[in-house]
Amino acid sequence: MLANAMTEEYEHIELFGKPVLFTTARVEQATVPKGWYRYEIRGSDYDPGEFCTIEQRVIVNHAGTILSPEEISLCDDGDRRYIQDQADFLDEYMTLAEFCTCHNLPVPENPQKYLIRPASPEEAGLFYAQTPEQDEALGAIGHVRIDFGHGGKEFWHTWHSRGAEELNSPEFKAELGEVVGQLRESVLQDLSAMRSYCYDHGGAIDGGICTQNYGYAVETERYRYLLRCNPIEGDYQAYLACFDKQAQKQLIGRVTFANGEQIEYTDPVEYLKAVKEELPYRDTSGFRFETLTSDSEVRKAVDDMVYDLYGEANPRKLEDYEEQPEQETAMGGMQL
What single DSSP character describes residue 312? Predict the structure, then answer.
């Protein structure tokens, strides 16, 4: 996994008599702020931790990364500089911002306005096509279909609407342009860059028909962007689905099965129906449920079914659920 230059914790060292930051991780270039310089350290063949040279890019014997507020001259052989005994560790750990404070430097702006995170396994289903009902519940606006074209170096894209036209507002379009612009600097730069990004950042999700797909999410105050990557030639390489969080319907409950399938419900009738039908087969199907609503009638109805499964009557009355809505129900709130 590549480290983020703005959030990584480094060792404070002096290199060639100048203070710099060092980490054993590889730092993603796209996260390095403007005015700062990233270099990599090559270790020896006998001891990878022993510094030999500083270079722009090290593939074999990578010993770490240097972040410097000043450009370092690579005067030996034109593309490297021998370190020898010119690296002194100061026994201090700090972030880039703390380094700036320590040396009276201005803290640089984060070059990445939007945080990109790998998808979790539970989110995998959201990266693929949804039913119109699911799209409506999730506040879907539409998706961008992306193809890197001939040789994997082009950038063809098509917009497909999946929601109410009023959701496709000027505000959304402006932010979408910014998000895509940032993605174009890393994972959507070209096909080769996408392959490298997926390899370095993880995010593998189930559901690809023939190949391994990868998912990445960007969350802003109002919108949610889900990027599915398919880093192979001969097919569309990416789908960027866009959702308006303000248009999402409130989730009533969530059910999962042993095979990884997950279904979220915004309709209380449909959720209760699913619990009633699947609960008797939980031992063989791996059925589990989680009641997310604070609606007292729904929570009690779920508990009624669980108690009934064991031949008992629910001892709690409706007013018990109304009096303590902040507490999980005895059974309805459990992941059974």
Answer: -
> Do residues 220 and 235 lie in contact, with contact meaning Cβ atoms separated by under 8 Å?
no
- Cα 110 to Cα 126: distance, rounded to the nearest angstrom: 29
Q: How many residues does the chain have?
A: 336
**With contact defined as beta carbons under 8 Å apart, do 147 and 236 qualify?**
yes
Average pLDDT, the chain: 90
Which SS3 state, helix, strand or coil, does residue 62 take? strand
Tell me if residue 263 falls in helix, strand or coil: strand
Rounded to 5 degrees, what are φ and ψ at 107?
-75, 120
Q: What is the mean pLDDT of residues 279-288?
A: 90
Q: Supply the pLDDT for residue 292.
A: 87
Q: Is the pTM of this model over 0.70?
A: no
DSSP calls for 127-175: GS---HHHHHHHTEEEEEEEE--GGG---EEEEEE-S-GGGS-HHHHHH
Please state at what angle helix 296-309 crosses helix 268-278, rounded to 10 degrees. Answer: 10
Residue 208's pLDDT is 73
As a whole number of angstroms, the distance between CA 155 and CA 183 comes to 12
Of 134, 137, 15, whose CA–CA distance to 73 is shortest? Answer: 15
Predicted confidence at residue 326, as pLDDT, reads 44
Contacts of 146 (CB under 8 A, 6+ apart): 155, 156, 157, 188, 236, 237, 238, 239, 240
Six-digit token string for 272: 């209760």
